[in-house]
Amino acid sequence: MQRRNFPSILLYGFGLALALSLGFNGFLLYEQSHRLGLNDYELGYTVHPVDLVAWQQQLSDCKRANEQKDSLISRLGQTPNAPPGHAVIVQRMSR
């Protein structure tokens, strides 16, 4: 008789552990949402306009630096003894 009850006790134990785990996780999420406040919680995952402006500034700086490097490469591509207007063909890699 006791052998027949063993699987049901084991399943009951697993079910109880799962219920306690879910309850504890729910409690932690509830505490976190009340501690941060709903607006602060949502703002934590949005991009701030200042970050976007800084990113756009960095992007324009990189574009300007690349354009300067391209013009330098094209100037260095001219052969020193070639007549004006004749240059070595510089192949650019596609991006």
Can you put this structure into words, describing what you see?
This protein is mainly α and 95 residues long. It has helices at residues 2-36, 38-43, 49-76. The protein starts with a helix and ends in a 19-residue tail after the last helix.
Secondary structure layout:
Elements: H1 2-36, H2 38-43, H3 49-76
- Cα(first) to Cα(last) distance is 75 Å
Low-confidence stretches: none
β-sheet strand percentage: under 5%
Number of alpha- plus pi-helical segments: 3
Please trace the helix and strand order, writing H or E for each element: HHH
Total E-strand runs? 0
Helix content: over 70%
Major sheet attributes: none
Give average pLDDT, whole number. Answer: 77
If you compute it from the alpha carbons, what radius of gyration comes out, rounded to the nearest whole angstrom?
33 Å
Alpha-beta classification: mainly alpha
Overall shape: it is elongated
Key phrases:
95 residues; mainly alpha; elongated
Give a nutshell description of this structure:
This protein has helices at residues 2-36, 38-43, 49-76. It is mainly α.
